[in-house]
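User: My collaborator and I are trying to settle a disagreement about how two of our proteins should look. Neither of us wants to argue from intuition anymore, so we agreed to look at predicted structures for both before our next call. Could you fold the first one, then the second, and keep them clearly separated?

Assistant: That sounds like a sensible way to settle it. I'll keep them separate. The first protein:
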Amino acid sequence: MTSNDVLKNLTEYNVWANWRVLKSFDRIGGELPDYAQLMFSHVLNAQAIWIARITGTKSPVTVLQRHTLEELHRLHEQTSPKLVELYANADEAELDRTIEYTNTQGKAYSTKVRDILTHAINHATYHRGQVARELRLAGHEPINSDYVTYVRIQYGQDLEI
């Protein structure tokens, strides 16, 4: 992992962190805390929506659509690596390309691809924190999905996976 490409690192971190949340959900099994399941569904839905905006396609999901654990796994596999791919395949012109879109409340905006990718990562991190809190409140030990933990693992300083 190179330190000179922050957005590349963050998109890759996002795949790892979302995978970690899914693994913690797998360990819980049965009934997931309702709000935790909704917020993680929202994380992946938002990724799908942003990807659709960048690629000029129709989103397969809505912003607060709730998913089963199996569906969450599938949506993660479809969206988290796709953010890495979109960044990896983008040149400076693509990263600076402005996307025109309408948000879920019907308001029109325009945002650069680079800012959308940065937002998608920050958005996911924020809501993973909410998921962790809900798991703890329900009596489950939340998984560590901190960026620094990811970095430590990448550099072989921590073998926790």
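The second protein, kept apart from the first:
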Amino acid sequence: MASANSADPVAGPPAAPQYLPPSVQGAVKILVTGPFGVGKTTLVGSLSEISPLRTEETMTAASTGVDDLTGRGGKSTTTVALDFGRITLNPRLALYLFGTPGQQRFWPLWDDLSRGALGAIAMVDLRRPDESFDVLGRLEEQQIPFAVAVNTFPDTPSYPEEELRSALDLLPGAPILYCDARDRRAAYDLLIDFVDHLYRTAVLEPQR
């Protein structure tokens, strides 16, 4: 999964802007989705080899009573359109990451962002698993292959996988993965496992 534009994709963010090499002829698209405040913007930023495009706005008093900030005391911004990042998988193939807004009032954008996606990383906060039901339901309705990515916060509770799978009402084929979205190496391991899942389920054809 190493980037063609970076000697070590987990060593840290690139020092200068990077452009796609002219040899790149194809691209794949993956969604990073989940409820409000689950870590989508952080994950895209950890993975992207370029400075990610972010459409964050400062939260104002207008969101009081609309956005639940329980357990999110340090959060002062929210994504209002999308997050965008890129990884050059090899000299001929690029991967584009599209992070979706978390709040339902921004969901009209969701359908456009999901169009053409090979799959989705659906982030979950186990301190508030019920907030993920709507997102997981939409992915299943649109038949978008996805993996559940549990973002591990310091106070994340631990559950047996079968109990968690039942609580989230997951289909048997949906994998459950874990990572700290702030950790670049852990984020890459998550993406590698997800792409491997797409290969094994014949969603993504190997590049020759």
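Some points you might bring to the call about the second protein. Strands lie at 26-33, 53-58, 77-90, 93-99, 119-124, 146-151, 176-179. The mean pLDDT is 80.
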